[in-house]
Amino acid sequence: SLFDEPLAIAVQGLGPRQQVTLRTSLRDETGQLFQASARYQAGDDGQLDLARCPALPGGSFSGLEPMGLLWALQPQKPFWRLVKRDVQSPFLLQLEVLEGHGERPGQLLAQAQHERAFLRDGVRRVPVREGRIRATLFLPP
């Protein structure tokens, strides 16, 4: 998906009202780790849709925040900022579903990797150098 588009996150196959912790992580271009986590409880049908299910207190955020696992990413190194320098390569987002809500994560139940791209297919990137001007022009297909 593109970095500025909403990402729908859902988990299926859980037990009725099962408590789980969802965790996201990514590494920036320098290798620094960013992580966020949230505690959830599946519905009676074992489904968990972040657009309809609020995060419980105790994680990086709480409440109904479908994109919370992305905006709440925090660096492991203090005062580090998530900056993308090479927009031609995507960020690789790791998603994990862990059992329970304890301080120490429980058993890994599921995991996935998702690419968050910055350029739509076909967009051309043209460097601009004119006098003292330095810029980049992005042209649609």
Automatic annotation (TrEMBL):
BP GO terms, sorted: acyl-CoA metabolic process; fatty acid metabolic process
Molecular function terms, GO-annotated: fatty acyl-CoA hydrolase activity
Domain of life: Eukaryota
Domain Acyl-CoA thioester hydrolase/bile acid-CoA amino acid N-acetyltransferase, first and last residues per copy: 4-130
Classification via InterPro entries: Thio_Ohase/aa_AcTrfase (IPR006862), Thio_Ohase/BAAT_N (IPR042490)
One Pfam family hit: Bile_Hydr_Trans
Family assignment from sequence similarity: Belongs to the C/M/P thioester hydrolase family.
Protein name, UniProt field: ACOT5 thioesterase
Gene this protein is translated from: Acot5_2
